[in-house]
From TrEMBL, chain A:
Its EC number is 2.5.1.60. Keywords: Prenyltransferase, Repeat, Transferase. Residues 83-138 have a biased composition (Low complexity). Catalyzes the transfer of a geranyl-geranyl moiety from geranyl-geranyl pyrophosphate to cysteines occuring in specific C-terminal amino acid sequences. It comes from the Eukaryota. Transmembrane segments: none annotated. PANTHER family: GERANYLGERANYL TRANSFERASE TYPE-2 SUBUNIT ALPHA (PTHR11129:SF2), PROTEIN FARNESYLTRANSFERASE ALPHA SUBUNIT/RAB GERANYLGERANYL TRANSFERASE ALPHA SUBUNIT (PTHR11129). It catalyses: geranylgeranyl diphosphate + L-cysteinyl-[protein] = S-geranylgeranyl-L-cysteinyl-[protein] + diphosphate. This is Geranylgeranyl transferase type-2 subunit alpha. Belongs to the protein prenyltransferase subunit alpha family.
TrEMBL record, chain B:
InterPro entries: FAD/NAD-bd_sf, GDP_dissociation_inhibitor, Mrs6. It comes from the Eukaryota. This is Rab proteins geranylgeranyltransferase. Belongs to the Rab GDI family.
Amino acid sequence: MADQGGYSQHGIARTSRVRTEEQRQRDLDRIAKYRNLEDQVRQRVAASDYSPETFRLTSALLKLNPEYYTIWNARRRCLISSSFSKQPSGSSHSKASSNTFPTATTRGSSTASSSAPSATTPPSQASPTAGTSGTTAEEATHNDRSDAESEAHDFSIIRSELTFTIPLLLESPKCYWIWSYRLWILQQAISRLPAARARAVWEEELRLASRMLDKDRRNFHAWGYRRHVVAQLESPVLNGKSMAEAEFAYTTAMIHKDLSNFSAWHSRAKLIPCLLDERGADDAARRAFLDAELNQTREALNVGPEDQSLWYYHQYLILNIVRPSQHPAMAPHFSTTDRIAYLERELDEVRSLLEDYDDVQLVYEALFEYTLFLCELRRGNAKEGKIGEEEKKDLVEWLGRLKGLDPMRRGRWADLERELGLEEGPGSR
Amino acid sequence: MESLSDIHWDVVISGTGLQQSLLALALSRSGKKILHIDSNDFYGGTEASLGLQDAASWVSRIEAGGGGGLLKSAAIWRPEDSTGLAASRQYYLALAPQVVHARSRLLEQLVSSRAYRQVEFLAVGSSYVFKPASEPTQPAALVRIPSTREEVFSTTAVSTKEKRLLMKFLKFVLDHDSSPQQETWHPYAEKPLSALLSEAFNMGEELQKLIYTLTLSLNPGINTKDGLAVIRRHISSMGVYGPGFAAIYPKWGGLSEIAQVSCRACAVGGGVYMLGTGIQSTEVVEGGVKLELTSGDAIRTRLLVRASEDAASGMPVIRRLVAVTNSSFDSLFEPAVEGAPRPAVAIIAYPAGSLSTAAGKASEHPVYLSAHSSETGECPAGQSVLYLTTNASPDAQELLGRALDAFLDAAKPSAQQEVRVLTKLEYEQGSGGSSVLITQGPILTFQATTPSIAFSDSVLDPIRSAWKKILGDEAVDDEYLTFSDREGAADDDDDVYEQ
């Protein structure tokens, strides 16, 4: 480690040149090793060699390049031909699975949830088509195990595969192929393990999804993945029941971490109808729920009026008030008087934002849209000219501000103006 | 074997305070012959961390006149019944318990020099403001200060209207170097920050106190220019190394650990270290300096670097109280946000006026209490170390005591055993004239830095000046504190290729 005098005695130049040459040689070595590894795997695949040795080689190659999806497929084939039990042993236990019968005529994993392009591979080894009888000579030699042993064996493979993908995921969290491989493994859990064990695996998956969302809260792929995992956990295949309450609480936590989270607000909106039904909420409870959501959103807008995700959610709440046939969850049986009162109150609240935020475009857009809703409630469709004097005055004012704040969209403002008959008289421009 | 006197040294660095140690780090790959000495038998100088016994000796030395002009009025106290107080070596009281903001240049330099690998960094939680009880029957409260949009959203301590003002101000600060913000605050640049807050932002006193606390400044009248810069550093540091925190604190004594890691790096690079050795006499000669060390060695060196022990008059003097308690105050160290690391340091601010003496006089200066959990390594598990700081004044000692009592009252874990103070250390510390490096021929002198709650990057500038002077033409600006890892240090991906 004699590095005292060696390096920068006379400054940089010598040092960096030496490193670059070393670095270059190292890179050349790495490339050679990679190519060699790749060649080995491809040769074996070409020879239909899906032995444990091939499997080991795919591990090494995938660690270097998880995007190489052909190799993921090779790995799946290795598992099916030499690692997993011949018969998905869960078949004797699982109830609703239609995909686990080991006859060669059915293709495995045909559930809608599987999104991997080649997640299913027909068994390529010579397993007899009359598998249902279960005791041919070949199966006996291949799989001299009891059901319980098969299950334990498959479980350990599943776990080890999931573990294998984790460091790869952490390094490449948006690599589709890793996620799709995980989904395939998870699907194997459903088909090969009894429901209780499969469920445990999927629950762990939910925890992983949460961790990924912690690292990147606005990753909508991760939100979609999460919804998929939740859907599986809720399904009868995994003895599931509704997770609406827990998921709703999750969106609350995510919003508190980061208000500007389209996906969290969106999930929240999607969950509310289910949630209220499950709670057996009556009209009073639904009203109270609406009040609480309006309060919270108001507090959020108070600190983030420029945030579009908040306004989308607020609009969703308003639509519950204004279009109950499309959004019946929170205010299904309000009287029209009630609805008008609620809308007027919300308009007042939004208007009060102008005291401190008078140049935020989204506030004016909300005021404009909600005023139109008010016309609708009071009289009928605003586009059919049913705008009152008061409302017209407001609409003209908001539109004026919008024209000033967003001159690039003047075509749009002009359209609105025309549609609603809001043009000022001649000479007032 | 060569003796020290035979070697013609390039640099002798006297003292292992933070500045001298970072200089040693900067020189650690230069191949220069460096002799680094310290008259103490510990590293760190004024930024050191001390066990209880070392602290007692340190106090005695100061009281016997050994603090230069910088340190005085030192005392250490222990109650008669000292049950609970562990062995001296289980404590590591920091003399410079400064927090370091994520955007601080110090962290950049620790990263580029690779020294960060030797340091364990802990999260510093959000600051609190001490709110005295409005009525005698009401308890005093510790109010968390919101400094991100989500914190403002969640807090119940600020009214709806005030939240808007706070948001506007935070956005303003982040961008205050552009127009139109500049036009708004330039007229107030040299005036106190409070003037900007009340006149340009219409903020009430309570909100002003919250904002003032974001500066972590000991100066109640901090001017607008400085105040805005410091607040911006805080806000832009938020979340940089993880959610929920803006500053970090090095484990094992704060800045003292950075000093030690730096010295270690220099030693690895060939520097020679001698603790318990000071300079007896100095003589400027042709080609450098002749030194006689307290060890008796006669040394020749081209350059001598040291730190001044003089306090400049008119510069801030602070008073500090360090109290070890038998409680871990767990609730104080809750992460601000789910998924955030558990903080090891929590700061409570007592704005001017929130404390009064027994005679009823209100405090004129802010007091800061920096609470450290045992995670810092500064005390055993189940205990905590509280560092209280304020500007020195005739009332300072009493006010620090009051702040401590108020804290113990407000933060005590409910209905638990009584919280007791196991030992106390007190002292006063002055500061040097400015941060500029003093050059007198072959002798370079660092002036004493101003003690502060948060680390100030101005401490780093004179170090670079010294480095330049020492390396002369060999100094390459881009290479200042920029090294690659030494062999053997952290090389991750290669194992996959080792097949």
